[in-house]
Specification:
alpha+beta, 5-stranded mixed beta sheet, two-stranded antiparallel ribbon, 12% strand
């Protein structure tokens, strides 16, 4: 039985993901937010972001699904050796090309003024020129999320005019714009589609949701459940371990974080969001 994800929990996890995308955020801030009351600005952010949204969660998932299908059916056009695994077509660079945009990498895109001072621009979209620009000044997982976020703007908000600049999320995760919230949700579904995440998760551990007990603790190479409970004292510590898991019982495999090309914490949050842990 899959644990249902409430709307409140979804908003909380989404807010944590905003925090996660900030390469300047401290990891302890993220971990603390996972199990403790949110900062006031973070707590009210999701509700503000939801007001005025033009696309429902289902509509965003449908848009992502169409893009994935197009990439798969036209893969011979975009790859010299066409992929044989659906995960391999989860490629935001190819998707940018597919929708008629070009991607330009930059050593820097300047700064924008924010409440906490100047913040470096991580990416921008120029709809007039049909160009997405991405800064190299950020860690790989943050760049990947930023690119998927800009792709989301191009697909969901094609009518926007001028040049739109995106910064990495600040430490409060305060993104009150409905379009920013929607682009973030697009990025989540594009990079970690539910069906594939569930499928690969169950391939590795054999069941969902994962429950820590004597049998599963042993499969995780823990001597017993008591030791496993000490090793994984919080849900986040367990989900992070599962996100980076490369061996279960006697089987070896690439981790979920590796095959979806995201960070451990990003993958862990997605596992929690889908009720897999």
């Amino acid at each position: 039985m899959v644990i249902p994800v409430t709307d409140t929990r979804l908003r909380k996890i989404s807010a944590l993901r905003h925090n996660l995308q900030d390469p300047y955020a401290f990891i302890e801030d993220i971990e603390e937010a996972a199990g403790q009351p949110q900062h006031a600005a973070l707590a009210k952010q999701p509700q503000q972001a939801r007001q005025g949204r033009r696309h429902t969660e289902e509509a965003i998932k449908a848009a992502v699904r169409k893009l994935h299908i197009d990439l798969w059916t036209r893969r011979a056009e975009f790859w010299r050796t066409p992929p044989t695994d659906p995960i391999e077509v989860i490629d935001a660079e190819k998707a940018v090309e597919l929708i008629g945009y070009s991607l330009e990498m930059s050593d820097g895109l300047g700064f924008r003024q924010a409440q906490k001072g100047q913040q470096e621009v991580a990416g921008l979209i120029d709809r007039g020129e049909r160009v997405i620009r991405l800064s190299r000044q950020f860690p790989g997982p943050s760049m990947a999320f930023t690119l998927a976020h800009e792709l989301g703007h191009a697909v969901l908000h094609p009518e926007g005019g001028g040049i739109h600049r995106d910064r990495s999320r600040d430490r409060s995760g305060a993104s009150t714009s409905p379009t920013e919230f929607e682009a973030d949700r697009f990025a989540v579904h594009f990079l970690m589609p539910e069906r594939l995440v569930r499928e690969r998760f169950e391939d590795r551990v054999g069941t969902a949701p994962f429950v820590l007990n004597d049998e599963t603790a042993f499969a995780l190479r823990q001597k017993n459940l008591d030791i496993a409970d000490e090793r994984f004292p919080t849900d986040r510590s367990l989900s992070r371990h599962l996100a980076g898991l490369e061996q279960y019982d006697t089987r070896h495999f690439p981790s979920l974080a590796a095959i979806f090309r995201v960070s451990l914490t990003t993958m862990a949050i997605r596992l929690e969001e889908l009720g897999l842990v």
